[in-house]
C-alpha cells in the first residue's frame, strides 16, 4: 500500500516513512499547499484542510497539523506554532520563558486521513522546555523539547526513538491500527 502525505515538511515525512516502513506501507510526500484557517483547535485546522484538499486531490491522502503548547504561556504558540516558528523561532520561545520556573509543555499532533470520508487520529506527548537548545536531529521545536521521563531533547534522539514516544508517533500508531482493522 502507498499513502500520500500532504505536507511541506520533510521532517514529518521522514517520521511517517520510518513508522510505516516495517508495516509494509510506503509513504510519499504530496506537496500541495492548502489553507490553514485560524481556529481554536488543531482538529478544526486539520478538518478544514482535509475537506478542502478532498475537492482537489485524487485518491486517499492524509495530513498532519501539530502544535507546541507551553503551560506558562497559556498554551501559546499552540495553533500558531508554524507562524511562531517562522518568525521568532525556538529562540523566541526560550526568550519568552527566561527566568520562568514552570517549563511544562506538550506537543499535539492531529492526523486527518481522507478516503472519501474524514478520519481523525490524535497524539500527545508531555514534557518540558529546555533552558538551551540541544541536538541536531528532528526539526522545528525539537531542540528545546524534553519529553517526560528523558533528559534528552527530541533533537538528540533518532527518528525511531522519537516516534516511540512522540505526539506524531502516537497519532501514527492510532492511524496504523485503524488501517489494519479497516483495510481487511
Ligand atoms: P505542514 O506543511 O505539514 O503544515 P508545518 O511545518 O507548517 O508543515 P504544522 O503547521 O503542523 O507543520 O507545524 C507547526 C509548527 O510546529 C511547525 O513550525 C513545525 O516545525 C513545528 N512542529 C510540528 N511537529 C513538530 C515536531 O514533531 N517537533 C518539533 N516541531 C514540530
Ligand atoms: Na503548516
What is the CATH topology descriptor?
Maf protein
Radius of gyration over alpha carbons?
Answer: 16 Å
The poorly predicted ranges are: none
Terminal Cα span? 12 Å
User: Portion of residues in helices?
Assistant: 25-40%
CATH top-level class: Alpha Beta
Main sheet strand line-up: 3-4-5-6
Give the DSSP E fraction (strand runs of 2 or more residues): 25-35%
CATH architecture: Alpha-Beta Complex
Work out the number of β strands: 6
What is the molecular shape?
A: globular
* Largest beta-sheet details: 4 strands, antiparallel
Return the domain count.
Answer: 1
List all distinct small molecules, including ions and cofactors, that are bound in this structure: inosine 5'-triphosphate, sodium ion
Average pLDDT, all residues: 97
Amino acid at each position: 500500500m502507498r499513502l500520500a502525505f500532504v505536507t511541506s515538511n520533510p521532517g514529518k515525512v521522514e517520521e511517517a516513512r520510518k513508522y510505516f516502513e516495517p508495516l509494509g506501507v510506503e509513504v510519499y510526500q504530496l506537496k500541495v499547499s492548502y489553507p490553514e484557517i485560524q481556529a481554536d483547535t488543531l482538529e478544526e485546522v486539520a478538518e478544514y484542510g482535509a475537506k478542502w484538499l478532498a475537492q482537489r486531490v485524487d485518491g486517499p491522502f492524509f495530513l498532519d497539523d501539530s502544535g507546541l503548547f507551553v503551560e506558562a504561556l497559556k498554551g501559546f504558540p499552540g495553533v500558531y506554532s508554524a507562524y511562531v516558528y517562522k518568525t521568532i523561532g525556538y529562540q523566541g520561545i526560550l526568550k519568552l520563558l527566561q527566568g520562568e520556573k514552570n517549563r511544562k509543555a506538550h506537543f499535539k499532533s492531529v492526523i486527518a486521513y481522507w478516503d472519501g470520508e474524514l478520519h481523525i487520529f490524535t497524539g500527545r506527548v508531555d514534557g518540558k522546555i529546555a533552558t538551551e537548545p540541544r541536538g541536531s536531529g528532528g526539526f522545528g521545536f525539537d531542540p528545546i523539547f524534553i519529553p517526560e521521563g528523558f533528559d534528552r531533547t527530541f533533537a538528540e534522539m533518532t527518528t525511531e526513538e522519537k516516534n516511540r514516544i512522540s505526539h506524531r508517533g502516537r497519532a501514527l500508531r492510532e492511524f496504523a491500527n485503524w488501517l489494519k482493522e479497516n483495510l481487511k
